[in-house]
Amino acid sequence: KNKFNDIGASVHNVILKKTQQGQIVIFGAGHLSITFIHLFNLKNLIDFVIDDDPNKCGKFMPGTNIEIRTSKSLVTEKVETCFLSLSPETEAKLLSKKRIFFKIYQM
Fold it and tell me: Which residues make Cβ contacts (< 8 Å) with residue 8, sequence separation at least 6?
């Protein structure tokens, strides 16, 4: 049996269960987020992606109908889980400014 398929199914199922508790979002609309969404077949489970780049906001993640929104959505929406898909530098800046929004769990 293919180990990657087992891992992918596990990731998908964990996120599927989380959707029952609230919205699932990704912070960062870069290539790693796109890969994560497609690799684990999450395009129907991710509610939206957050990115404050004005060139990305209002658009959609490639190959999906997942809208890219600003970080204000963290306040206006009931977000259960937010995956960070950021460079270490950007993640540090984000957490210093918006730590109140996040319970941090390392993966």
Answer: 39, 40, 41
Of the candidates 8, 5, 18, the one whose C-alpha atom is nearest the C-alpha of residue 79 is 18
Burial 67-106 (b: 16+ CB within 10 A, else e): bbbebebbeeeebebbbbbbeeeeeeebeeeeeeeeeeee
33-79 pLDDT per residue, tens? 999 999 999 999 999 999 999 999 999 999 999 999 998 898 888 88
Chain position carrying tokens 């963290």: 74
Question: Cα 8 from chain centroid?
Answer: 16
Strand, helix or coil for residue 68: strand
User: pTM of whole model > 0.85?
Assistant: no
Element (H, E) at 67: strand 67-69
Ramachandran area for residue 41 (φ above 0: left; ψ -120 to 50: alpha; else beta): left
Biggest distance spanned by C-alpha atoms of the chain:
44
